[in-house]
Amino acid sequence: MGCWVMAGITFREAARKKILWTALLAGLGFLALFGIALHYQIEDFGAHSSAPFIRYQILSAMLMVGLYVVDLLAVVMTILTSVDTISGEISSGTIHAIATKPIPRWQILIGKWIGFVGMIAGFVALTFGGTIAVAYWMGGVMPENAFHGALLVFLECLLALSVTFMFGTWFSTLTNGVIVIGLHGLAFMGGWLEQMSGFTESARLVAVGVVTSLIMPSESIWRRAAFEMQTPLAGSLPFSPFANVSIPSPTMIGYASFYLLVALGIAVYHFHWRDL
Amino acid sequence: MRKEYGNKVAVRKLSLMVPLGSIFGFLGPNGAGKSTSIKMLLGLVKPTSGEAFVLGERAGDVAVRRKIGFLPEHFRFYDWLTPAELLRLHGRLCGMAAAKLRERIPVMLDLVGLTPHRDKRVHDFSKGMMQRIGLAQALIHEPEIIFLDEPTSGLDPMGRRLVRDVIRAQRERGATVFLNSHLLSEVEVTCDNVAFLKDGEVVAAKDLHALGEAEVHVVVRARQLSPQAIAGLAPWTTAASVEGEQLTMTARSSDVLPHVVRHLAASGADIYSLIPARASLEDLFVRIMGEDRGL
Questions:
Q1: Whole-structure pTM over 0.80, yes or no?
Q2: What domains, with CATH codes, occur in chain B?
């Protein structure tokens, strides 16, 4: 019961404080930009009468870039909107009137988490689905395994959300933000190092990338999503930033899911025992 | 209970009993550990050692929190809500049914005088209005014990009177009120019992109804007061000093005053008047806490 009350108030807070609408507006802004870019590219195809196969590959590559931006946008939105929810209420004392009500503390935290999960699901559905719809409507291109890809992007956001909650039970809002953005930056770098190692064939670079992905597996989830959504031909193009040169295994996705649950578990445990 | 933060001891030894159905004042200077003590009783802060029981159950348990209302010292809340929405949220967190809340919310808004402001957002409220809505959320589920941390801070005289009336009404319906306040005059007219906290330890507890009996300030106008006569007052007084023809003393109770008069008359003093005055809570506070150490 307490969970749903907290989930509802978290969702309403985002809506009432215009956080939700600002995020959705940013998503719509991106979709508009993506549509304009596609429109000009398609017009240029007409001028240069490119071969249909080349047209399809270029538009597919543009769609992948668009989906990558959606992924980045969704993760950053997740962190920015949730970074203050635990630490901010602890430091302001708002939590005192809530935590003395007859609901266990875990329900406060999980309720908030569920509220954010609802918002993130809406954001990912709108931006991810919107990007695919725009690409299909304007250029006739569709990614492979789109639903699977969307689920992986959603999983990456849930991972970022759980890690943000976990550090939020320890640190102030600012410190929490620095840590989580820093970790995601680390994962981003690790992912690209692994990707580069495919071209340079450096085993040591692979090792650095793998270790970084184990520290924060968020970028690995995207690279798995990219692998799932690309056609085998597009994935095999060596010059593509999303080339299938270092594909995270399903085990890595399992590890990321486990990581998410552990982070959430630690958040619940620490929030239960800490002084407020 | 004891609470330590690293090397700092916030609460050294908290041991107190609060009579059910009374208004209990918890007093002490800044930094004495009052807020930490309340937080331990509410389960917000875990004691380093020891335990407390509220209504027979371990302090902080969910079952106990169902029977507790709390107004924090610095009441902060989701200020984007209207007061009615805020009370609905708190009521739902207390497990109240929607129908019961529909009936209770207007009553609570009326009780704290916020009915004319029911459609405003809480972020437009003054500090006094925040205190009032905070009080309403603490009472929404008709708790058996209400913890109020500085409930009158920021309130104007009308607001203070309203809070005082609300507190008394809670006692009338059988609830216990645990009041933490710096305003000793408020405590004096509201509370039945008080405990004094100093350096994280309860150093005294008093029944305020018996306070007048226990401690009496007396001013005596007399001539021929000898030092021996003053020294001989010790069995009946805790302090005595002479300035000219005026003897000021604190008698242990009004019962001893006839002994004092007989003693002074027997020593040869000429007594012109004897005026007893009840010791104020502030006097008692200052005497128990000692001089201001700049806390």
A1: yes
A2: 3-208 (3.40.50.300), 216-278 (3.30.70)
